[in-house]
What does this fold into?
Amino acid sequence: MHVASDCVERWSRARRGLLLAAGLAFAVLTSSCALLGDDGDESLRQSLRSNQFMWNQADLSNYTYDYQYGSAWGGPPPVTITVRADTVHAVVNRATGEPLDEAEHHLFPTVDDLFDEVHEALDYDRADVIFDAELGYPRRASFDPYRNAVDDAFSYEAEGLEPDE
It folds into this structure.
């Protein structure tokens, strides 16, 4: 009987450890995620403030990142955007490796533009935003300005940001 109770106690400790680990993992994963919806308005505002502060502290004006935009109406191809002095300097189609025409550069966002979009989304019916845990920039976002409207939702991914000198 002593062996059985020992086994039960070890199992109980292991289970508590697993629950604690799962809880910590959940907290870490959700710490950089914000949601706007029923009661998420203040959550997104707070997350936006703290992550934009983190981005501003990084003080990056030269960087490269991968960007993809999507909506029911389609969107541009996945691209790599190079930003110099806080301005889009180059945009390259990731599938072909071909640079896009300079006249199209204004269609692609800097990280500051991504933050502006999230600020605008505070007035939308729904917004889900995941911020980068290290630099604070909006990595993934999906927006639905009008919950009952058709084809107004859109999203983007901004990943792999690398500071440049």
Summary: The two ends are 68 Å apart (CA to CA). Helices lie at 2-31, 41-58, 111-121.
